[in-house]
Write a structure and sequence with these properties.
Length: 354
């Protein structure tokens, strides 16, 4: 099948360091190529892929301090895709609602995976205006604010099976926080949990420009505590060692996280996750198997005392069973196939007959 993957331009695909949506787009794209499909990736020019790369902007926007209007490059991206849309069997967007006005008017099947939060009041009128726009959720909990959107399915994120692996020579000795520093992810609570549990905390996280004031005013003063080590951003090559060395990943979120990629990154390394019961957490973490789901700091501290009851081998096995990139790609292929069959694509009818 001829498939277009259309990524945001904020980060390269895959991101050089932190990045959620673009990272998932990379994993999906490479898995689809591995399944034998003809895939074109529309992304920033500094992206790396085994698919055909169509550079919609020379480089990732986050790394260019001269970019003030990030909407303009995305407008060019959409027009670039529109002009060649007829050459594909299906278009898969990762740009939230931006494709709806233009691509709802075309005959080429398209679908949008919604990666972000949907509990913003201004989104409801958009989805009311485009009730037939086909969308995919990354967790069932993500759908709650927009129950009447045209949901085709829920597809959980996946990682390449061998991207992150347990480092058996590493003796787990600390608690870990991985991701992005912002008010909703509550690294301050992670610091508190580690202090109460009597364990060191290593923080591997990026600070976006939008969160710099929060970091300086709230988090930076906490980093001087003796049990805290701020590592900064890390890349994929560093994650296996970082996560394998942790007794658990702390995920004390204060909002309805749509998925939480760091949870399955920890699972890939056999590392338990202690997560607050918000958003997708109950869909990703199997309580008492791959980690513990708790309600507050006290519950998290108690969960630390029960980490030895969990099998890191079973945690890795749960990841392989549920959250690989290949499984994600196969799930999306079933969605693409249904879309193209509904649209009556000659290319797919020939492939199905063959």
């Amino acid at each position: 099948m001829r498939i277009a993957q259309i990524a945001p331009l904020h980060e390269a695909v895959p991101p050089k360091l932190y990045g959620g949506t673009e990272r998932v787009v990379s994993y999906l794209t490479e898995a689809l190529v591995g399944l034998g499909h003809d895939v074109t990736l529309f992304a920033s020019g500094d992206s790396r892929t085994g698919a055909h790369l169509e550079a919609a902007w020379p480089h990732a926007l986050r790394l260019d301090p001269g970019i003030s209007d990030t909407f303009a490059p995305h407008l060019l991206l959409l027009e670039k895709v529109r002009r060649v849309a007829h050459t594909f069997d299906v278009l898969h967007f990762h740009l939230s609602y931006l494709p709806f006005p233009t691509f709802s008017q075309l005959v080429v099947p398209f679908v949008t995976t919604l990666h972000g939060r949907l509990d913003l009041p201004e989104l409801q009128p958009v989805f009311d205006m485009f009730p037939q726009a086909p969308v995919v959720s990354i967790s069932d909990s993500q759908r709650v604010p927009l129950p009447h959107a045209n949901w085709l399915d829920t597809v959980y994120h996946g990682l390449p099976e061998k991207l992150l692996t347990p480092q058996l020579s590493t003796q787990p000795a600390y608690l870990a926080f991985l991701g992005r520093i912002c008010a909703e992810k509550r690294v301050d609570l992670a610091i508190d949990i580690a202090a109460r549990a009597g364990l060191p905390l290593k923080i591997a996280a990026k600070v976006d420009r939008a969160d710099e004031a929060y970091f300086r005013g709230v988090i930076q003063p906490l980093l001087s505590q003796p049990h805290v080590e701020f590592v900064g951003e890390i890349d994929d090559a560093q994650k296996s060692g970082f996560l394998s060395g942790a007794r658990a990943l702390l995920f004390p979120i204060d909002w309805s996280e749509p998925f939480g990629l760091v949870m399955i990154e920890a699972m890939a390394c056999g590392t338990p996750v202690i997560a607050f019961n918000r958003g997708s957490v109950p869909e990703v973490i199997s309580h008492g198997v791959t980690g513990y789901i708790v309600d507050d700091v006290t519950g998290a501290v108690d969960a630390v005392t029960r980490l030895d009851m969990l099998s890191r081998t079973e945690i890795r096995a749960a990841f392989v069973h549920r959250f690989t990139a290949r499984a994600m790609a196969q799930h999306y292929m079933s969605i693409y196939t249904a879309l193209v069959q509904t649209a009556g694509s000659p290319a797919l009818r020939q492939a199905v007959v063959g």
